[in-house]
Each structure stands twice: as structure tokens, then as C-alpha cells.
Amino acid sequence: MPATPAAQLDTAALRQFILGLAEGMIAAEDSVDYIHETLGQVARAYGADDVEFVILPTLILVETGSGETERLALRTSRPGGLRFDQIAALYDLIEQARSGSIDPRDGIGRLNEIGASRPRHGWVVRVLGHALLTAGLSLLLAPTWEGVLIAFGLGAVLGLAKLIRSPTLQLVFPVVAAFVSGVVVFLLAPHVPMGDPVRLMIAPLATFLPGGVLTTATMELAARQMVAGSSRLVTGLVQLGLLSFGIIAAGTVVGVASTTYVPLVTTEGFPWWTAVLGVLLFAVGNFLHFSAPGRTFGWILLVLLVAYAGQSIGSVLVGATISGFVGAAVMTPLVLWIGTLKHGAPTQLTFLPAFWLLVPGAAGLVGLTEAVGSGASLEDFADALTSIMSIALGVLIGTAVYRFAKHGAAEVASFHIDVPALREEEEPPLWARFVPGTPRSFWGRARREASTSPSEDDN
Q: Is the whole-model pTM more than 0.90?
């Protein structure tokens, strides 16, 4: 249905529609500066130029009108919680709203449908997906076949528990998941050659790691969104602390030594194709667990391969600590380009798995667990924060490169400066009246008058 003309626009419906779009984008973990930019485009598409926004990670304010017609609407929200199929449907709706091609009331109905939609896959397939993504990530973090089997089992148990809809359980579930993962791994470590137990127990916690939150926070701080960026940063660090607390509590219950928390260096060699297999399993797991639309699987896999290849190259060139910078810098333009394609995928749908693969949250969790559990210094945790910052910087640079590649050539071609001309009706400075050769000079007035006056032959 075409949009309502500006003169007949229902501003109350438009306010609620914009609130719903903002709430959905926050749930998709988009940055507040991008949300503000998108909502501005939507408002202009409906001819509402007097709309103001205040966007925070947990609060949305929308004001329309001015003077006596001024109205303010607010809504609280929380990030996270959308499946990939819901994210894809949300951004399809946003594209319609950007062009004003859907009535705001119809848009509100569509938002409600997206929120109430059922996942594409049943609980068995979704649990299998969580187990697969856990197994794939374990191949990349602590590659042993015994470790892969343990990670697969833990991923299945935690994936099933994640599907339980209980606000109370969701509040404490990250700590419970870290505790369960830690107990199982610490109990099996003396009897099973699983490689590095600390890194292995990170794999089942992949979807709890705040890598995307910390990276988005750094990007928002760089964009001078200080309130949103600092609140996300604190939230991400607290999440890391809770996960680390669960692991250390598990170690205390089992009775492990403090040296157990120090990551081990795996010397066992694995064929090159195990990394490709790990990325493939990770992509399939994300696709199944989060019920991604079928057309997006190829894009998810492509972004993950590019991100992992970039990170691997960066590890060789600049070291493991800031290798995520290379991975983020090369995958970000690809993600943004895919988002512009007619049959592509929304940026957040491919960004989030890439963040989990680059594992900024896992690096932070390993560093914090080692610092607290083994009594070591905070140097390892500082290195983890450096890796997070490097990933965020890679995203920023990748975004800048993409925008220059897309818009830079046209902007350079149309670059033009209008040279202001001195108009004759403007009065020149007093000194210019006495300097020969300047406009309206006193010395050249007689000559100009003679040249412009009609000659006798013309008469």
C-alpha cells in the first residue's frame, strides 16, 4: 500500500511505527548512530521533517510536531533476542519504510507479525544447530577430536536450555551455562586428551560472548555516542565478568589448581582443512540455530570465510593480538556490499556470526579468567581489550573504505568550487579607489566611461 500523503499523515501512527522500527534495530544490536540515521530517512520519506529522536540502548524517544501540535512518545527496549529470520524480515520492512511505500499502520501490523513469528526450524534442528556451531568453533579454538565431541555435547545441552522461555532463567543463564561448561570440562580434562580446557569451554559459550556488544560500543564511542557507547561497554565487561565467575566457580567446586586457568599451547598438528571444516560447521550451526532464511546461508558462509582468512593472515603479519583488525577490515566492506544487493542479506545477519568467529569476547574471557583464576597480572586481559579495540577499528576503517569506493568516485568527479565574483554594485574599499588597475579605480573611471559611451558614428 502506498504511503499516506504528508497532508493526511497520521502522526500518531508514524510515531508508533518509528518507535517499533527503533526497538527492532536495537534488538538486532545495531549501533545508535546508524539507527538515528535510518529513522531520519524514514521520517523524511513520509514528509515528516519535524521529527526528533533520542536513541539509547534501552530507551527510545520520538517527538513530532511543534508548538501546540508537539507530541512525545517513548518506549523502553533491550538489545538482543531476535532470530536471523526476524532480522531479515525487519530490514525488509525498513527498506519499504525508507521509500515510504508502506502505510505506518500497516507497518505497525507487520512489526507485530515479525515479533510473533515462529522460527523456521523446530527445536530439534535448532538444538542441533547450536551443537554444530559449538563444535565448529572448538575446531578453531582448541582443535582436538576429543574436544570437538565434548563441545558438541555441551552445545546440545546448552542449546536446548536456551530455548526455554523463562525471564528468570535468562537472567542467570550465562553464569549457569559457564558453570556447567566448566564443571564438565574440568572433570574430563585429567582423563581425556582435549587440548586446552580453558579455550574448549569457551566454545559452548559462543552465543553468550559479548563480542558484538563490545565492538559496537567501541564504534559508538568513536562516533561520539558517549552515553550509548559507555553503557554498552560496561554491559559487555560485566557479561565477561559473569561468565568468568561461572568458570572459576566450577573450578572451585571441582578443586582444580590455579595453573589450570592458564591457556595451553596446542602442539598437535592438524590438517589445513580442519579450519575450513570448523568455519563450515560454524556457519551451518548459526544458520540452523537462529533460523536464518535459506537465501542467506551462502552469504553467511562467505563472510565467515573472508573474516577467518583475514584474521589468519593478520596473525602472521601483525601478531595474534591485533589479527582481528585485518579480519574485520576485510569482511566489513563485504558485509556492507551484501546488504545493498537485491537478494543479499541484512548487515547485522552476517555481522553477528563474524563477530563471534573473530572471538573478541572469547579472548576477553580467557584473559579475565586467567587473571582472576591464576592470580596473574591483568596483562592478558589488557591484551584481550586491545584485540577488541583492533576489531572495532577494523570495522571503522572497512566502513570508510566501502563508502569511499561507493561514493568517492562520484564525489571526486562532481567536485567543484564556485569562485565568488565581485559584483559592480558592491562598494570597493577606499584604498582600491586610488590604486590603478583595481575594479572601479578612480584613475580608470574616465577610460571606462569613454569606452562605454556611444560614439558619434553610432548616432
A: no
pLDDT in tens, 251-276: 888 877 654 555 555 545 567 788 88
Cα–chain-centroid distance for residue 178? 24
β-pair partners for 75: 60
H/E stretch holding 71: strand 71-76
**3-class secondary structure, 60:** strand
Quickly list DSSP for 295-317.
GGHHHHHHHHHHHHHHHHHHHHH
Q: How confident is the model at residue 412 (pLDDT cuts 50, 70, 90)?
A: very low
Please choose, from the candidates 178, 130, 124, the residue with its C-alpha nearest in 3D space to the C-alpha of residue 156: 130
- Give burial (CB, 10 Å; 0-12/13-18/19+) of 92: middle
Amino acid at 306: V
Is residue 1 classed as helix, strand or coil in its secondary structure? coil
Q: Which amino acid makes up residue 345?
A: A
Comparing CA positions, the residue from 322, 282, 327, 292 lying closest to residue 309 is 327
CA dihedral 93→98→101→102, nearest 10 degrees, is 50
Decide: helix, strand or coil at residue 346. Answer: coil
Query: Which triple of cell numbers denotes residue 34?
Result: 546508524
Residues making up the chain, counted from first to last: 459
How do residues 151-185 score in pLDDT, each as one tens digit?
Answer: 999 999 999 988 887 766 777 888 889 899 888 88
